[in-house]
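Q: Entry one of two.
A:
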Amino acid sequence: MSLYTLWCTKTYTLAPLVVGITPGCEDQLAANNDKFQSVLNDIIDFVNERRAYVLSDWAALSMEEPVVSSVSHSPLKPSSVEEVTITANVEAAAGGSVKSVTLYWRTRGGFESVEMSLGGDIWSVTLPPQAMLEIVEYYVEAVQAIAGEESSTFQPPTAAQKPMNFAVGPPGGWVVGPWVVFNEVSGKKMDWIEIYNPTSNPINLAGYYLNKGGMPGEGFFFDPSFGDEYLIVASMGFMVVYADMPAPTPTPLVTNFSIDADGDVLTLYKADLLVDFVRFGRTFRGMSRGRAIDGSPDWVEKYEPTPCASNGMLGDLNEDGDVGQDSR
């Protein structure tokens, strides 16, 4: 069944609702019904116009698209002093030729475009070093020409809606595994930070630093004198650090900073190497932000916080641009 048919057969008037309504409201219901029908007619006209447009140029719209594959960036975990090269394979459809390949990228704000160049069988472009703790988002568009007509495709197919990305570390670079990750954060009512160990071995955080987007050696220090109970994160285990407030139970894991409820950046360092960081938006009272699945790249809003417990499967991915470090 077409969308047009569905609209025409599955849209109802308000007539069945007038039975048993409060006396005197009939005129208001009738007025609302007229307005509803007017809007519906406008939608049907719009659908008809779009259908006519599609059918008028069906040959161009049904052209086979170029194939874009193997889009990647190198190095996978760049530092703030390294250039990043983005590459892609592009194949034109039968009888066509690749006209252009464009990279769209951004750190914040709108996407910038830059033409990629062909070297052998690989299209590539190199981006200059980016600021520490930035998230660089990108996608690729390929345009081909067949018999005087053009068609294009994007990789990933979601393009700007959900692009590929990489995170930028400090000048010293990223730690080489094993590593832990930020897994959940609460910045309202009680400030706490959950750290998760996704590896098969315990990890000792002695000597690590936790701060708010600062440099190595700044912020809260995981002092070796805390003892193993407060330093070792078991395999697939969790550790909670409280932010600048009394903890519900005695613990040395209380930072010298608080979390901004309107959004913040958290960083974890081992010596001068970045272990993980996350940038997140506003946190509402009684809620938290956490990874959709423990250790996964996507963050969501959580209506039921789970400190020191698995996040499990959660709801829809957030749509406000918050991104955790996911270039592992």
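Q: Entry two of two.
A:
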Amino acid sequence: MTDPSVALLTDATIAAEAVTGPILAGALGIGFLLVSAALLMSLARLVIGPDKPDRILALDTLYVNTVALLVLLGIHLSNDLFFEAALLIALIGFIGTVALAKFLTRGDIIE
């Protein structure tokens, strides 16, 4: 007798493989690779960045890359939940970037 959660996971994997053809699967693999590389490079810029504006831009780029990675994962797994998570991260990233830029230019976030 199999575990029901394993059966559901197997069914979801089969459904995801049925939706993605060989061309889409290859494109998703390349997309995962490139977005992951961009994520690592922006993380390096966030750590190394010589100035504060460079670090803020690297943080903004991290948000954008995370959104792209979640969208690719949602396409790969055929799951809408990842698209909603990507939307939330994009909103939080935008608000965070605006707040950091305001703090950097004025020294205070709330006037």
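A: Comment on entry two: Residues 22-48 form the longest helix (27 residues). Residues 14 and 77 are 10 Å apart (CA to CA).
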